[in-house]
Each structure stands twice: as C-alpha cells, then as structure tokens.
Protein 1
Amino acid sequence: MIVKPRIRGFICTTAHPDGCRAHVEEQAAFVRRQGPLDAGVRRALVLGCSGGYGLASRIVAAFGCGADTLGVSFEKAPVDNKTATAGWYNNIAFEEAARAAGRYAQTIDGDAFSDAMKARVIETIRADLGQIDLLVYSLASPVRLHPRTGVLHRSAIKPLGSPVHIKTLNVDRGEVHDVDLEPATPEETAATVAVMGGEDWEFWVDALASAGVLAPGFRTLAYTYIGSELTWPIYWHATLGKAKEDLDRAALALRGRLAALSGDARVATLKAVVSQASSAIPVVPLYASLLFRVMKEQGLHEDIISHIQRLFATQLCGGAQRLDDVGRIRVDDVELSDAVQNEVRRRWPLVTTENLDALADLPGFRSDFLRIFGFGIDGVNYDAEQDPFMGRPDAG
Ligand code: NAD
C-alpha cells in the first residue's frame, strides 16, 4: 500500500514503515557520530521505548553506550490494510539496527502498569541479561489500570483551583486563540497522580530489586517537565505538575531503598519537544512553536535525540551532575536560560494568527509532529509501496 498521513486532531492515524525505519536509523547515526559514551551502561531496560524520549534513550544506550537493551511499549500491530502505530515500526527498526551492531535487543509490547508485564520482564532479564544497570522510566499514558486495586484511573490535563483563560494554538488550522480551561476536581487530580506519578516507577524498581536483577551501582531515571511560567497554568501548577511532584517523592524514596546496592534514582528534567504525548496538552504547542523559533534563532535548538545524547554524555558519564535543590537532574537549562525565556516571554503577548509566521516556528512544530509517524524524513520515497507488516506477516 501507499501510506499517506491522515491527521485526526492530535494524532496521525497512519504511520509510514520505511519512514519510521529511516527516522530510527537517522537518530542512531547521530549518536554514533558523537562517539562512544563511558556511562557504565551495559544492560538497560527502557519503559516507554517506542517513541519520543524513551526511544531516544534506548538509541543512546545502545549506540552510544554499547548497551544491550530490553524495551517495553504499548503499540498496535498492523491489521489487514491498516498500518501499525509508529512505535511498532520503530521497535522493529531499532531491534534490527541494534542486532546488526551486535547488540541484544528485545521488545515486549503490553501494559507496563500490570504485574504480569513486570513478571515477564524479570523472566526475560534473568534468561537473557542476568541483571540490568539502567532503568529508564519514560511512560506517557492517559490511563492506568491499577494492578492492586483493579481501578482504571484516567488522567485529566487541567488547571488546579480556578478556571484559566489562556492563549493556545490550533496546530491544524494555524490559529492562535484563547481558551477557557476548567479546573480539575480533587478526584481528577488524584487520578492524574495515579497515572503519571511515581507509584508505578516504585513498583518496577521494587519488583526488579526483589527478583535480584539489579546490578550493583544500578541507576534509574524518570523523566519530567517543568518548563517556564508561561505553561505553568496547564503544566507545572496543574494536574500534570502534581503527578510530576509525586515522581520527586518516589525518587527520594527509591534513593533510600537503592542505597544497599550503591544505586541511584533520579528524576531528569527535560526540554519541551513534540511527541505524541505533548501534542495533546493545550497551550504547549504555542509555547513550543515560539520556543523552537527563538532557540533556532539563537543557535541553541536541540531535538529529542541531541537532548538525550547530552543527558547521557553530561549527566551519566561520571562528571559533576547538574542537580537542583530537590535532587533532580536538570538538562532543561538551555530552554530555561534568560536569553531564551526573555525572548519567548516578550513574544507571548504579541503573537497572533496573523504574525505567527514571523514570531513562531509552526512549520518546525508540524514537521516534528509528522516525523513522529515517519513522514517527511529525508531519503524516503513516499510513493513507494509499503509492507505494513514490515516482513512479519504473523505479527498482527
Ligand atoms: P511518547 O508519547 O512519545 O512515548 C510514550 C511511550 O510510553 C511510548 O513508548 C508508549 O508506547 C509507552 N506507553 C504508554 N502507555 C503504556 C503502557 N500502559 N504500557 C507500556 N508502555 C506504554 O511520550 P514522551 O513525550 O516521550 O514522554 C515520555 C516521558 O518524558 C514522560 O514522562 C513525559 O512527561 C516526559 N517529558 C516529555 C516532554 C515533552 O516535551 N514531550 C518534556 C519533558 C519530559
């Protein structure tokens, strides 16, 4: 079949097999060009490995650190004439590239929040890797079926306390407009913490530790976003921020529990990028479009892979870590630098639909969005027939 993008709101319902492969290979080639990383990461488990920051972390672990990797994601295989999700193609492309480089690479698709998945992963580590020395927790999900209570929690992306009247961007139409966002109820806030907070990260580390599959000196990272005050009403000071604060609580608790292994647990604060998860958050596309324009103008732009490469190279390879007052790793320093933020803040009240092209980088945002699904990647022939099963006819 010939695969074209079909965009519905915040998602693209098609994904391009050759494009996803080229996107993964492009990221792997970038990491290889940066040279080997001496991070002491030989066997890594990446939760949320199929896209965005998790995929980039797996690529840096494999092609920078030379690590064997086990990944977990929640992706859909192709059916008949419907393509798989992008992450499904990314996983295959990653496994093939890593194995060609002589690295072990295995991916398990299913619900990372479940006890069954934890048991399967432990079994696989025991059989194939023995132990792991890095766990990257990079899940982004709207729901979590709690493995102990059976409750299905649904996160809500809402402000706290009172309604918020704020600027946003309709990416499809290229229109800047105001929205009124209603505040979350206490139940919605608690549900968001249950989905995106630290409990599941703790469940993972505890399960892996009890099974004896954590190597001495084991480290774990969970990813967070703080950003600038422009997005705080819908992010850091909102339901998502509450969930992310709970990651900080979990990190502290895990550091205590990992002390016996001389292990470490850190929340790493990353920059804003376009991902499937971040496209769905109101306000963020407008902020990100302004941010990308300013960072590109100042020669400071980082994409997902170069950002994660910097995280590993500067924060995991033994030099002094950039930690904040609650012990988080900070690599959002460039996004939050005065030079960048002063300029984004200056443009924020000025930006309208009419001057969007002059002040922001909507084309860059749209292109990053399409690239997630394998579209717009250099060297890919988008008129060529695609095998949606990528040579794995039994996969569906
Ligand atoms: P993403 O949507 O690109 O990837 C999410 C991953 O989670 C995918 O691999 C998906 O398959 C997996 N997943 C979702 N539900 C799952 C489940 N139940 N079981 C197994 N796997 C599941 O997301 P992203 O933007 O890369 O976000 C990853 C982390 O990085 C999140 O914690 C996010 O808050 C953080 N972060 C993102 C940004 C940003 O701008 N995108 C900035 C800073 C921090």
Protein 2
Amino acid sequence: MKPKLFMTREIPERGLNKIKEHFEVDLWPEEAPPPKEVIIERVKDVDALVPLLTDPIDAEVMDAAPRLRIISQYAVGYDNIDVKAATERGIYVTNTPGVLTETVADFTMALMMAIARRVVEADKYIRQGKWKVGWHPLYFLGTDLYGATLGIIGLGRIGSAVARRAKGFNMRILYYDVFRREDLEKELGIKYVDMDTLLRESDFVTLHVPLTPETKDLIGERELKLMKPTAYLVNTSRGKVIDEKALIKALKEGWIAGAALDVFYKEPTPPDNPLLELDNVVVAPHIASASLETRSRMAEIVAENLIAFKEGKKPPTLVNPDVMKVRPPGF
Ligand code: GLV
Ligand code: GLV
C-alpha cells in the first residue's frame, strides 16, 4: 500500500505526477488555502504532508497527525512550519532551496528597475490618457541604477545572485549578514559593513533574509530614518521583515524615496492598505519565484525529497538534520 499524503494545493505536474507514483495523494482542490481546521481534519491518517508557505503547520497540526513522518514544503522559506516541534516529534522537514535563487534574483532586479525608473507609473499614465505631449525634458525623471550604491541585507544564495546581477549594472555593493563571506567579497568586489552603515550609504536597500524571530520587523522606524531620503527599499523576502506601518509613514513623510514590494505583512494584502495609494510604491503579489521552469523544478524537488525519504534515504534538502537522531528516514 502506498503511503498517504495530503497536499494543500495543486503543484506543477512534473512533480505532482512523480509524487502520485509513490503516494496516495489527497489534494486540496481550491485556490485558496485550506482553513486550519480542514488541515487538522485531513492530516489525521497521513504519512506525509506537502504544504505551502500560506499554511500554518504548528504543533497542533502535528499532534493531529500521529502517522506524519515528513513535511515537504513547496517553498524555500519555511517560517510557516514549527521546525522545532517537528524535530521533537521525529518529523522530517524539507524545502526547495537553490532552484529558485536566480529567478528570485531576476525579479528583485525587475522591481528595483521598476521603482527607480517609474515603469509602472509611466504605464498607468499612458493608459489613463494622460500622455498629451510627445516628449518632454522633465517627464518621469527617475534614478540610475548604474553607479548607484546597493545595500544587500542577507548574503545567502539569493542575496549573492542579486550581487552578481548588480555588478553588471556597475553598482557599488555593500552587504550585511550575520555571516561574513570573505570568499564572495573578493569574487564579487563587495564590501561588508554593519547594518547602520549600509542603511546610511545605500541608494537601494534589498532584503534577502529568512523570517525568524531575529529578523521580524528588522526594518522599522529607526532603520528607515537612517536611510537617505533619495533611497529605495526592495523586498522579495518576507513581508514581516519590515514594520509595514513604519514604512507607510516613511513613504508618506519622505524619509525614503520609494519601495518595491513583492511581500506584505499580511497576504493577500487588503485592498485598502494605504501603501497602495502611494505612487512611489511598486507592488507584486508574492511572485518572485514564479517562472514556469522554476515552479516546476520546485515541484520536482518536493517529489525528490519525499521519494528519498520513502526509500529510507536522507532527503536531499532536509531542513532539520537533527531529526535523524530521533528517527531514521522511512515510513
Ligand atoms: C517563496 O516565498 C519561497 O519561500 O519559496
Ligand atoms: C535562499 O535560497 C537563500 O539562501 O538565499
């Protein structure tokens, strides 16, 4: 008999079909996430779970699933999962790192260019019938990326992929991370500074940290006030890394020039979020990893982790290796 698995949303076929060869899959058919009560009900007799970042997988869910042995998250971030609770219960947790790095870095550059050169504002301007004069020396003046200083907070895989791109734009690159990366400093010609220096000197600040208790509200009033009034903030990490109320104040009062955001404090962000009324903000609905190829590769990695575990092997992208001391892989 195949082990049972609950999947909280449809994922691309390339991974889904492989999973179906090995597991009996109960797939939540709707676009919206299943409510927590539904998750608790559906995991009762499952051996494996495939959640998304929108699904809270805490101790309560795990305790409702006495047979659960592996949670194979379809995302690189896993702040929705209580990993400590999982490890204590001998439950393996895996994610999908690596494959989305370049795709997220591409999108980070897209947002940075969009806010700096006012692409979205200009698009709306034409569509609203406001383009009446052919060309004007003072139309839509923006900011150059070329030669500007970029501050990268979090120099992991994604942060360093952004640095590689920014180098092509001839940007001066500063970074801050809890881990210093001297190897990359040489390779990329980037400079390590403390966070306050980064905030004070950068023309663009981009966030590439995971959401943890230490990074929650990392960018608040104090940090926004350190930034230049001409600087832009870009976020493709997690919304809660920025204190959104402070950001709204900063944008309204001109402490910074603008922000480009793929992620929000609450997702979906309510249509009456004051951020959405501001012209100096570019927004996207958490789509930085959304390329067809990457979303398919993520699905394959979810499948590879599940299948390795089923075969009694260490899943390739295990988040909590300590769990192997609690229980060996396999159902
Ligand atoms: C998306 O935000 C991810 O963590 O994969
Ligand atoms: C995620 O892939 C990261 O480490 O930046």
